[in-house]
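Teaching note: in complex prediction, the entire set of molecules is handled at once rather than each chain in isolation. The prompt given to students was simply: 'Predict the structure of this complex.' The entities are:
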Amino acid sequence: EVQLVESGGGLVQPGGSLRLSCAASGFTFSSYSMNWVRQAPGKGLEWVSYISSSSSTIYYADSVKGRFTISRDNAKNSLYLQMNSLRDEDTAVYYCARAGNSVVALYYWGQGTLVTVSS
Amino acid sequence: NFMLTQPHSVSESPGKTVTISCTGSSGSIASNYVQWYQQRPGSAPTTVIYEDNQRPSGVPDRFSGSIDSSSNSASLTISGLKTEDEADYYCQSYDSSNSNWVFGGGTKLTVL
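The expected output is the structure of the full assembly:
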């Protein structure tokens, strides 16, 4: 059974940093690209970042470019999101999502971790 | 940039059929696969349709997806509506011009 478990969320002040993790199990992690998607309270889904299976290709949404860094450790079956210079508008539930056979599809989702940016 | 537009809400009675549209802003929606996700209150999204019209195992065949190139839109059709289908539904695709994954704004389905 595919499992994605996010952790690392919490309350942080504006301008602060946080590192999210996503522990993967139930599939060959090194074979699949991964994404982070977020959802602000009461709002829709917003794609944040993509990383290919080998980390050779990385993309970011304009809203986080230059502030967030996606990475992965295939030996540890883990995905990460380093978030710096956090803003109020970064407050959201952050989900990790595994691609399907097509990298466009976000086939499996984790349960999410809440990040609150507030003073 | 490529955008996907969905109706804010739809409602229908149990046992009926509902269709949720997802219209692409430019280019051809058929250029990249469209996915549909279901999100019940307080839960993470789950995939109900991927690659335009494919159903993951465990998703009932009451759910179907299609692409209409003439209207540059995708559709999610749910037949034999059940109260458990009440949820938010999001379409999603990919913008090749800027390598961004794109979501529609979501449609709240009410089954009453």
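Point out the following to students. The two ends of chain B are 37 Å apart (CA to CA). The mean pLDDT of chain B is 96.
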